[in-house]
Amino acid sequence: xxxxxxxxxxxxxxxxxxxxxxxxxxxxxxxxxxxxxxxxxxxxxxxxxxxxxxxxxxxxxxxxxxxxxxxxxxxxxxxxxxxxxxxxxxxxxxxxxxxxxxxxxxxxxxxxxxxxxxxxxxxxxxxxxxxxxxxxxxxxxxxxxxxxxxxxxxxxxxxxxxxxxxxxxxxxxxxxxxxxxxxxxxxxxxxxxxxxxxxxxxxxxxxxxxxxxxxxxxxxxxxxxxxxxxxxxxxxxxxxxxxxxxxxxxxxxxxxxxxxxxxxxxxxxxxxxxxxxxxxxxxxxxxxxxxxxxxxxxxxxxxxxxxxxxxxxxxxxxxxxxxxxxxxxxxxxxxxxxxxxxxxxxxxxxxxxxxxxxxxxxxxxxxxxxx
Length: 371
Ligand SMILES: [Zn+2]
Ligand SMILES: [Zn+2]
Description:
It is a single chain. By secondary structure, this protein is of the alpha+beta class. It has three domains: about 5-105, DnaJ domain (Helix Hairpins); about 130-265, Chaperone, DNAj Protein, Chain A (Ribbon); about 275-370, Urease metallochaperone UreE, N-terminal domain (HSP40/DNAj peptide-binding domain, Sandwich). It is built from eleven helices and 15 strands. The strands form six sheets. It has a four-stranded mixed β-sheet with strand order 10-11-15-14. A hairpin with a 2-residue loop joins strand 10 (about 275) and strand 11 (about 280-285). The longest helix has 15 residues, at about 15-30. The structure holds zinc ion (2 copies). One zinc ion (ZN) binds near residues 157, 164, 214, 216 and 217. One zinc ion binds near residues 159, 214 and 221.
């Protein structure tokens, strides 16, 4: 029975390789047996279609022979879906390209140990990154601060210094992997039997173990601990800013490098101020008389109270600048207008209170003034 591979992938006869690849990915996602509404038969069918259409040569043959493609290929080595079966051989052109599959298989690529195990190895041994949200006060963001946080994370074992061996124990060849650092097992999958190469869990790929594992970390070289960390908050950091502390993430196992710590900064609001880049904005209410005759008033700033001169005849909505009373400029924040360490300005917008509940006498005087 012949199959319409174009129809299976839902592409036209003139589809480009790119379109075919995309269509295949979509189908594979849709029908992947691991998914809730997956369909193994359809998944295999899509794979089969892609094996042919995704390969220029096979596609040309398929186009030419049409329905008799399978017979034409019967003795020619093309084995359709069977090509999947010897993953371990992985000979050029015969098997599916893992890159084509992209993330369809999720972690399977690593499970198989593709890429010589290099990627898998660093991934399993290097400590993970940690992401933590850190809430700070408005003023701490303006001026910078030092904070101490508590973090439950993996740290290098101080007893064995991270190598997992009880001090004084002898080095031995790992019995689990015979010193190879890898174990190979055969796994049955929907694609047939596959050789799965994995890093030896007993020696973490080193091929050697110690006669006695460290009693504190049980040979892992690291253990969880509640640690106090001093954090320097740079002046000028804004809401959503991230502080990266290299090597302060989870410790790696068996002496592998640690991950990084990312602190996501959340700046608390201050009801008095609005931050706009390096500048701070605020409103202040003055009386009609102050606006008309002028005055010297106190204005709340991040530096405390500052005197501001209101000139005679100030209109409502006028802004006054308190130079250098804004936020410290932080480098690399992307908006221009300041050297690092230099402070922005504070802009005070004056709003005039219209008098309410006037006495009869006050009203008469106002009328007399007629301004
Ligand atoms: Zn230890
Ligand atoms: Zn081993």
